[in-house]
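Re: the 75-residue chain
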Amino acid sequence: MKHISQEYILNFTFVKALNREELLIKKYSDYYKRCNDKETKKMLKNFYESSNYHIKLLRELMMNLDIKVSGGRLK
């Protein structure tokens, strides 16, 4: 069985989390534009802001752990 380094696991996990949050932001933004209900729009705006906050936290953690992302997005 191939050994996977701790660095690889951290990098992979953080990049996947960032990618998911970025995708959520795109979806929330699209849904917000299509929606007419004020309460739903308010909820989508809160979700959007939460995802932006999560991205900020993830990037801070990555800097603190010295995790560098190179080569763009992982899928």
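The radius of gyration is 16 Å.
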